[in-house]
Amino acid sequence: MSKRKRSLSGIKPTGNPHLGNYLGMIGPAIELQEEYDAFYFVADYHALTTVKDPVKMRRLVYEITAYFLAFGLDPERAAFFRQSDIPEVAELTWMLSCVTHMGLLERAHAYKAAKDRGEEKEINHGVFTYPVLMASDILIYDSDVVPVGSDQIQHLEMTRDMAQRFNRAFDGEYLKLPEAKVRKEVATVPGIDGRKMSKSYGNLIEPLAPSKKLRKQVMQIETDSTPLEEPQDPDDCTVVDLYRLVADADEIAEMEDNYRAGGYGYGHAKQDLFEKLDQIFSPRREKYEALREDEAYLEKILAQGADRVRPIVDEVMERVRRAAGLGRII
Ligand code: ADP
Ligand code: TRP
Known about the structure:
Elements: E1 6-11, H1 19-31, E2 37-42, H2 44-47, H3 54-70, E3 79-82, H4 88-97, H5 102-106, H6 109-116, H7 125-139, E4 145-147, H8 153-170, E5 179-181, H9 211-219, H10 238-246, H11 249-261, H12 266-293, H13 295-324
Parallel strand pairs: 1-2, 2-3, 4-5
Helix pairs in contact: 3-12, 4-7, 7-8, 9-12, 10-12
Bound molecules: adenosine-5'-diphosphate and tryptophan.
């Protein structure tokens, strides 16, 4: 088997990815397909905590598959698959649950946030146990690195904690400790209101949305009210922060000079940012639209991906079942 390190990540199927998803996770994960054995999956089990509609679930899975392909995932190199095509992740989730303290899960961000909103009794057990399923997702593939945005670091720490507890409980190195791979410059991409870009804040820029919508989102970026003629500080503006993440060095320097010189309003800066985004993403938008139509092809990619990871799952599951004294001896 290949000696390359393994990169693994998952993404919940929640519709059109925003710039934070793309720059923080999707782009970096896809780049790693060059150097790593890359395994990426659609987290449909995780989505089940909120999506209770089978038609919608399938549609969301096809959409995210088409997005990854449009963004450059090469199915010949990277395996892209459905989380639920590997049902053993649910089995390993149970095994990890039995070495995981309630206290650890009570500290998880998503659960704490729900509790702070007073929803403790209404949230389902899947939300509470979300980090255990995520740990299982990672550990079941003997993953080395996990490319994610900075909001997932806590989950990676919990994953390592669970692997260590499992290894200690059964006295052996059964599960490999993975590492988060977070790109510093895009760890937290700002949204149009300057806070972290996130679906839950509705402050999105969706690079694959139709041009008109993309332009509207860019135009809505919040800026201060410095008059057009006055020089402005490029280090204190979300438009520049975003431009720095997508433009090349010369273009960035030009925008910074324009800010300092004055006579260059936020409207101009936003127009430049929009044009840059549209230039980068419009070919991918077209590719997405074509791919999205071909569900048979998307299904084939997902099946092929699941087949690729299957031998590793069998190996790891055999190891952990033996460690715990579960299942028949063959
Ligand atoms: P959201 O916060 O919009 O619900 P998700 O939690 O579905 O996004 O995130 C999917 C992936 O994108 C994760 O790996 C996450 O770390 C990354 N990500 C999400 N928002 C950002 C952001 N603003 N900056 C960088 N990475 C992000
Ligand atoms: N929790 C991740 C998110 O909300 C999605 C996810 C599920 C994941 N399982 C994973 C990410 C395993 C990396 C590895 O974005």
